[in-house]
Design goal:
25% of the residues lie in helices and 19% in strands. By secondary structure, it is α+β, with helices and mostly antiparallel strands. The protein folds into two domains: 38 residues; 146 residues, 3-layer Sandwich (Rieske Iron-sulfur Protein). It has a three-stranded antiparallel beta sheet with strand order 1-9-8, with no helix packed on it. A three-stranded antiparallel beta sheet has the order 2-3-4. The protein has a three-stranded antiparallel beta sheet with strand order 5-6-7, with no helix packed on it.
Length: 197
C-alpha cells in the first residue's frame, strides 16, 4: 500500500472517530438540558396533570389517584348508581351544583363529563377529613334508606353517588370535582381540561 493511501485511510479513520466522538458528546450534553424541561417532582405535586389508565376500571369500582397531594376518586358508575343519583335529587342540598366547586362541564346532576364516570377530590368540604365510600345501596347506621355514596365518619356528612351533600349535614358544599378530560375511552387526565385542536 502506498504512503498516500495509508494517509487517506488514517485521515478517514480520524475524521470518522472525531465525528462520532462529537456526536456522543453533544448527545450527553443534551440529556440534562432535555431533562430540565420535564416537570420536577415538586412541580408535579404543585399541580402538573396526572394521566390515569381507566381501561380496566369496571362498573361499580373505584380507584384512587394522587393529584396535588390530594386523593382523587375515580368511580365507574353502574346504571343502578345513576338511578340512585336521580332518586337523591330531593335529599341533597345543591342538586344542580350551582354553588359547589367544579368545572362548568360538571355543573349537572351527575357532576361529570360522562354520566358513568365520576371524578372527585376525596376530601370533605366541612373540615378536610377523608370520607369513606359506601357504593352499594343498603341500610347503614347513619341512613336507613341509603342509596349509596360517601360518608364522612368525623362529623357525619353524607354525600350521594355524585358527591352532592345531603341537606342538614355539616359539610357546606358538594365534594370538589377537579378539572379533567378524557382521552378516548381508556385515559383520564386530571388537572387539565383543555381540549386539543
Amino acid at each position: 500500500m502506498a504512503d498516500t493511501d495509508l494517509d487517506r485511510a488514517k485521515r478517514r479513520f480520524l475524521l470518522t472517530a472525531t465525528t462520532l466522538g462529537c456526536g456522543v458528546a453533544a448527545g450527553a450534553a443534551a440529556v440534562p438540558f432535555v431533562a430540565s424541561m420535564l416537570p420536577s417532582e415538586r412541580a408535579k405535586a404543585a399541580g402538573a396533570p396526572v394521566e390515569v389508565d381507566i381501561s380496566k376500571l369496571e362498573p361499580g369500582q373505584k380507584m384512587i389517584v394522587e393529584w396535588r397531594g390530594k386523593p382523587v376518586w375515580v368511580v365507574r358508575r353502574t346504571p343502578e348508581m345513576l338511578k340512585a343519583v336521580q332518586a337523591d335529587d330531593e335529599r341533597v342540598a345543591d342538586p344542580q351544583s350551582t354553588r359547589s366547586q367544579q368545572p362548568s362541564y360538571a355543573k349537572n346532576e351527575y357532576r361529570s363529563l360522562k354520566p358513568d364516570l365520576l371524578v372527585l377530590v376525596g376530601i370533605c368540604t366541612h373540615l378536610g377529613c377523608s370520607p369513606v365510600d359506601r357504593l352499594e345501596p343498603k341500610p347503614e347506621p347513619f341512613a336507613a334508606d341509603w342509596h349509596g355514596g360517601f360518608y364522612c365518619p368525623c362529623h357525619g356528612s353524607l354525600f350521594d353517588l355524585a358527591g352532592r351533600v345531603y341537606k342538614n349535614k355539616p359539610a357546606p358544599d358538594n365534594l370538589t370535582v377537579p378539572p379533567y378530560k378524557l382521552v378516548g375511552d381508556a385515559k383520564l387526565v386530571i388537572g387539565d381540561d383543555t381540549q386539543g385542536a
